[in-house]
Write a structure and sequence with these properties.
By secondary structure, the chain is mainly alpha-helical. It has helices at residues 37-56, 63-81, 88-95, 104-125, 132-142, 181-192, 201-215, 222-236, 248-253, 255-268, 271-308, 314-326, 332-339, 343-355, 374-381, and strands at 7-14, 17-24, 329-331, 359-361, 370-373. Helix 3 (88-95) crosses helix 4 (104-125) and helix 4 (104-125) runs antiparallel to helix 5 (132-142).
């Protein structure tokens, strides 16, 4: 449905030049969303896929192992959309104090994303409301160090920004002036907790994401916080018990359509076209995550069974295998520390895992060797190749 502009334009000055900045109308959309047959069917399909995803963690022998790596995969993907070149392997290497294969600023940015996501989930689990205060906290963690740390972490912007183009004059989009940001975010916060407008949490998350990106309340990090907002909303509302749904891969693979539909909401008020795209993404990503959980569950069981057949060496090899299941890349010192086994015992166990085709040595060196749980890492890394 085309409602016309989803906001109003106001004049704002940047460098002595007057620009027309866009201030979105408060949510929910007016007139209300047209949940016709097609959009309603997409909503139902996405809801069913989300339910299957929420139940899928029971398929894993230890969902904490899966969540550890899955959260990091999302961090890599979301940061890649913003221009980083880090891979999942780079992040895992960084976390065991090994030098990654990309500039340190890139991998620090990804590591910050993991910290911001975990901070938000802990705060929500403690009963803290999903609010502008929490959004600012998450942003502060996201930009705590490295690139962007000079962009007022945890504070709404106090200057005008623009998106796209080489200057304000040819910008693709100019978000609200800084004086309008607090009111816009206050309206958004009220919408997050509204329960009388008939919107399901899936629709609310999709609508809130667009509004957040349109307000663009921070000097940096808006895209990453906006994508996190979807996951936080679903977890906060109980639609997901674990943070398993991340749309960054879908947005990365369909980035032209993503930006076009965000803009179409602003210029035509076409929320339905955006929501059709978004719900298709929820369905696709949720189904993919369920398939991954099933595949990994079978793989873990098969590998443990194979190792268990190796006689006296099986016990120590299983302990090393468990360590690599928890952290898919490990050094000899980190594996010794995690397992509590001696260096010779770990070395022997890793050798067995290499013979079985489960572990792979990454460096080709005789000293300071690194080992990867190859099949697990390959599965998780799918789709995380830098743009």
């Amino acid at each position: 449905m085309e409602r016309g502009d989803a906001g109003t334009y106001v004049e704002t000055a940047v460098g002595g030049e007057l620009l027309r900045a866009f201030v979105p109308y408060p949510l929910p959309p007016d007139p209300p969303l047209a949940l016709d047959g097609d959009l309603q069917q997409r909503l139902e399909s996405a809801g069913l896929a989300l339910g299957r995803l929420d139940a899928s963690s029971t398929l894993l022998p230890d969902k904490a192992l899966f969540l550890y790596s899955y959260v990091r995969k999302e961090a890599v993907l979301s940061s890649q959309i913003e221009g980083t070149k880090s891979t999942l392997s780079d992040l895992l290497l960084f976390e065991i104090d090994e030098a990654p294969g990309v500039p340190e600023a890139d991998v620090i940015e990804v590591s910050n994303y993991v910290a911001a996501l975990e901070h938000g989930l802990v705060r929500l689990a403690e009963g803290f409301p999903l609010s502008n205060r929490l959004i600012r906290e998450i942003h502060e963690v996201l930009l705590a160090r490295g690139r962007g740390s000079d962009k007022r972490p945890g504070e709404f912007r106090r200057s005008q920004v623009w998106l796209g183009g080489s200057s304000p004059e040819n910008a693709h989009f100019v978000p609200p002036p800084p004086n309008d940001v607090p009111d816009c975010m206050a309206h958004l916060e009220r919408f997050l907790h509204e329960d009388g407008d008939g919107l399901t949490v899936l629709l609310r998350a999709g609508v809130a994401h667009v509004q957040f990106e349109t307000i663009h309340p921070f000097l940096d990090g808006n895209g990453r916080v906006g994508r996190l907002l979807i996951t936080f909303l679903l977890c906060h509302a109980g639609a997901l018990h674990d943070p398993l749904l991340y749309l960054s891969l879908y947005f990365k693979q369909n980035r032209d359509a993503y930006y076009e539909l965000l803009n179409r909401v602003r210029t035509h008020g076409d929320w339905e076209a955006w929501l059709s795209f978004y719900l298709d993404g929820v369905c696709s990503v949720a189904e993919g995550a369920v398939a991954t959980a099933e595949r990994l569950g079978r793989m873990f069981q098969d590998h443990r069974a194979t190792i268990g057949q190796q006689g006296r060496r099986a016990s120590s090899a299983l302990r090393v295998y468990d360590a690599l299941s928890a952290r898919p890349i490990g050094s000899m010192p980190s594996l010794c520390q995690t397992t509590g086994l001696s260096f010779p015992t770990v070395s022997s166990a890793v050798g067995l895992l290499e013979q079985l085709g489960i572990a792979r040595e990454l460096t080709g060196k005789r000293r300071n060797r690194l080992f990867a749980y190859d099949a697990y890492l390959s599965d998780l890394s799918e789709g995380t190749e830098p743009l």
